[in-house]
Amino acid sequence: MNTATNAGKPRFAPLPESEMTEAQVKAARELASGPRGKMSGSGPNIVLLRSPELLSHTQKVGAYLRYQSALPARLNEFAICITARQWNANVEWMAHHPLALKAGLNPAVAEDLRHGRHPANMQADEAIIYQFCTELHATKNVSDATFNAVKDTFGERAVVELIALNGYYTMLAMVLNVAQQPLAGGVPPPLPVLK
């Protein structure tokens, strides 16, 4: 199975509400009542619903990180896209790439990232986020210079939330890749396989 394409058969069947347990219905409705406004049938939460308590807890973390972050939406979504690219998570990329562009990320920056290139023409704040996220994924830590760049620019709260954002979306990428979640509408994978 090529995780970059999600070409395999989905490992989790659709879960209509009529087949959900009481706990699953409760968790799905709780998620839908929050800022997301609905329970998507193709994202990671439909997989996490197999463990309704886990979904209940993690979706609150995700809602906080997406909608109440210390970072502006453009940088938050850029960090999510970086994580999606790191994990070849096509479903995650498809969900967050349009949000990053809508929030003001330069399409050329996103395109470089999509192809695994160091993005040219990043704004100064984007370059700081890019360095932090890519360094964290590559080395499992960050240097003092990288840490201080985020702290000095955005504050300590943002450092902690950026770490959590990378971890949360790494977890979701793992869920999506292992579940072999298909791309909505049968579209081709947006992320090319990197050599």
Description:
By secondary structure, the protein is mainly α. 61% of the residues lie in helices and 0% in strands. It has nine helices and no strands. It has helices at residues 22-32, 44-48, 52-67, 73-86, 90-102, 107-114, 124-139, 144-154, 156-179. The longest helix is centred in the last third of the chain and has 24 residues, at 156-179.
What percent strand? under 5%
Number of helices: 9
Mean pLDDT: 91
What order do the SSEs take from the amino end to the carboxyl end, as H and E? HHHHHHHHH
- Principal-axis shape: globular
The total strand number stands at 0
Main sheet record: none
Spatial gap, N to C terminus: 16 Å
> For the CA atoms, what is the radius of gyration?
17 Å
Structural class by helix and strand composition: mainly alpha
Q: Report the oligomer.
A: single chain
Poorly predicted segments: 1-6
Helix content: 55-70%
How do the strands and helices of this protein lay out in sequence?
Elements (H helix, E strand, L loop, with lengths): L21 H11 L11 H5 L3 H16 L5 H14 L3 H13 L4 H8 L9 H16 L4 H11 L1 H24 L16
Helix pairs in contact: 1-3, 3-9, 4-5, 4-7, 4-9, 7-8, 8-9
Main traits of this protein?
195 residues; mainly alpha
Quickly describe the structure.
Helix content is 61%, strand content 0%. With 195 residues, the protein is mainly α. The model is unreliable at 1-6 (pLDDT under 50).
